[in-house]
Amino acid sequence: MDAGGVGGAGDSCFEKMETEEERTELLRDRFRLSVISIADAEAKKLGMQVAEPVVACIADLAFKFTEQLAKDVELFACHAGRKSVNVKDVILSAHRNDHLTSLLRSFSQELRDKEPKTERKRKKSSEKGETSVPS
Amino acid sequence: MLSTLSCQVGTGTSKKSRPTTANPSALRVSCELLRLFVTEAIERAAIIAEAEGINKIEPTHLERILPQLLLDF
């Protein structure tokens, strides 16, 4: 790989840059594969064909969107004083579009319903069972 | 993969020693968001192509829907 225009940096810094670029390229390629499969499935569902440059363009756009999303979501978590990104942070990132927000909310609700272990629900049901008769 | 990307973006300018991590559910919801992005792009471009009576989605169709798509997301 060609040495990037990083002047004056030490060898370790340069090496880190190269691996980070390589990592980004690898991620971009893997990401593109996923986007291609989603786009092809959708086009098939609509009974239409998609030109290859269109899919490549959508893949690059989605990658950039993901980078921005990651940055936004990290800022939200940091703003809330957390070190880990939450579902609420992701839903908040879609705040500009009400329809999108409701779609994501219902999706996250579905995920929560599918989860077998919900401690809160257990507490509620145990409270119901334990109705102590006041003497 | 999304977690690696999130970590990458984080280490760029953050002063923290540890990169930011993400909740597994948060990752799944992010995946859904991205899937919706791709799906919406294809569906909107398909509408334009169909209106022209063409069976194949071309770059010109994508061009037409792009501004509104980016505003909506």
Automatic annotation (TrEMBL), chain A:
- UniProt keyword Lipoprotein present: no
Q: SUPFAM superfamilies, from UniProt?
A: Histone-fold
Report the source organism: Musa troglodytarum
CC terms in the record's Gene Ontology section: FANCM-MHF complex
Which stretches does UniProt call biased (Basic and acidic residues)?
126-135
Reading the lineage from the top rank, the first entry is Eukaryota
Chain intervals for the UniProt region annotation (Disordered) = 108-135
Under what name is this protein listed? Centromere protein S
What's in the keyword line of the UniProt record? DNA damage, DNA repair, DNA-binding
Q: Name one GO molecular function term.
A: protein heterodimerization activity
Q: Which family does it belong to?
A: Belongs to the TAF9 family. CENP-S/MHF1 subfamily.
GO annotation terms (biological process): DNA repair; replication fork processing; resolution of meiotic recombination intermediates
From TrEMBL, chain B:
What GO biological process terms does the UniProt entry carry, in alphabetical order?
DNA repair; kinetochore assembly; replication fork processing; resolution of meiotic recombination intermediates
Query: InterPro entries recorded for this chain?
Result: CENP-X
Where in the cell does this protein reside? Answer: Nucleus
Q: Which GO terms describe its cellular component?
A: FANCM-MHF complex
User: In the UniProt record, does the keyword Transferase occur?
Assistant: no
- Where in this chain does the entry annotate a coiled-coil region? none
User: Where does the secretion signal sit in this chain?
Assistant: none
Q: Major place of localization?
A: nucleus
Q: Keywords on this record?
A: DNA damage, DNA repair, DNA-binding, Nucleus
Q: Name one Pfam family in it.
A: CENP-X
Name the segments for region: Disordered. 1-24
UniProt cross-references to CDD domains, sorted A to Z: HFD_CENP-X
GO MF, one term, reads: DNA binding
Q: Which PANTHER family match?
A: CENTROMERE PROTEIN X (PTHR28680)
* Stated family: Belongs to the CENP-X/MHF2 family.
- The name on file for this protein is Centromere protein X
From which source organism is this entry?
Answer: Musa troglodytarum (fe'i banana)
